[in-house]
Amino acid sequence: MRMHYTLKFNPRVIQDLENEDDLDNVVSHSDDFANVYIVESPGVEAIEANIPNTQLALGGPHPTFPSSNASCDANPNTMMLSRGFASRCADTEYTPLESNRFREAILGSGHTFKNADEFRNAIYQMSLAGRFQYKYNKNSPTHMSVKCSVEDCPWKITAHAVEGNQILRVYTYQVNHNHIAQDECSSKVRVSSKRGAVVVEDVFRTTPEYLPRQLYKDFERDHGVQLTYNQAWHLKEKAKERVYGSPRASYAYLPWLCHRLREINPGTIAEYTSHEGHFKQLFLAHAFSIQGFTMGCRPVLAIDSCHLSENYEDWYWFLEKLKGILDGQEVIIISDRHQGILRSVSELFGVENHAYCYRHVKENFSSFFNRQNIRGKKGKEDALLLLDNIAYARLDIDYNEAFEKLVRFNGDLARWVAENSPEHWAMSKFLKKRWDKMTTNIAESFNAWLREERHQTIYTLLMMHMDKLVAMLDTHMRGTDKWKSVVGPKTEEKLMSNITRSAPITVMPYLGGTFKVFTGEVYLVVDMPAT
């Protein structure tokens, strides 16, 4: 006789149970349940033991549950007396499904639940493990009666409220089914997003970005139930609500939160708008962030759209608030050319201060290239390299040379460049200082920085963001104590590199902050007016 077990976090790997160390693993890693398999010989029939906090099954060395749509060729008049579909088909080899752990969600008569909703969750989990449908004869907070949907099946569980409170105690506990093969073949678990959310909520605690398409694949693999994409999406939303709270309820805290942020940190701008009782917009700028930007940062801001519901009015409102805290300081806005951003930046900051993200421009150029009759991967690589030369050229003469090369390569591609506002993304054509900032990557880095937090409710998101921001600033402040000069070590390294590279360059000062610079190849005029 040999014993095996599976662990909660990896139920598809069967472990040997041979000594006390293995037994300790079962206890320490299995929480309130464990799947244990005792192997005597191939083909031994599976049975179940009603042991509190433990699930015990006897079977072959490689147990496997059939899928919910498995065909049955048995005589339709053959009666099956058992406790669940998983056990009813145990004479075949099976790998335990994740839902197998729910077969004893209710342990028996006397089992108590803190309220009716917890009882309903347990019933659903039992149906998921046993692959059967059920219906309520009584469904109230004080009296629950559930039976199998198959006619004349004796499976039945009842529970009554303990006098004076919401606690339910199980009284009737008849969990043997009496089905014919046709009932088994037509068995299909009802999909409930509310009840199913209890089953998958742990996944969203550890993986907030878990996608519906991942969920419906994993749900079929783990529980033998096929979901539609729509069902998976609703299941995800319900699970997130159980983990993070109700999004709708969290908006009610915004007025208080905005008031407290302004109160405890004078100078903070925290404003929100609503329409007919529904949240609409939020602008938040912490006082320390405002002060840090205006006193110590280059005047360049990257903004990124999410293409969900924002429009021109939303962006105008946001950018108007942003302009208000800058107190007249001129800034360069880098964006992905969202239509609402294009219009509002032009009206509030001036079209000349709007730089386009080169990465987005390059992606659009690549898409245009794909529609041309230009074959070969090498051709596309060459075209993108020519575009890079155009974008990063610092002098007009270099820009013109790179553009002429693109014209000779393909006239349609050159025409696309000319028609897509190079004065907003090509370095030599942009008239304002953009400090070599060519993309909105910093904005997307911010999104990645809040990868987990952004799945929270709005209240929790704001609180977690503030905690994370303060921790980051504290770390940076401690780092500045180690600086040997007024700039950090990375900036110091860049300065020394530039000083070395500038050794062969000669500079002749003119009046009014103008300098004549000879690089060894060309003469340049550099304007550096005193501020």
From TrEMBL:
Domain annotation Transposase MuDR plant: ranges: 106-167
Pfam families membership: DBD_Tnp_Mut, Transposase_mut
GO terms for biological process, alphabetical: DNA transposition
Record's keyword annotation contains DNA-binding: yes
Keyword DNA-binding listed: yes
A GO MF term: DNA binding
Annotated InterPro entries: Transposase_MuDR, Transposase_mutator
Keywords: DNA recombination, DNA-binding, Transposition
Protein's name in the database: Transposase MuDR plant domain-containing protein
Biological source species: Vitis vinifera (Grape)
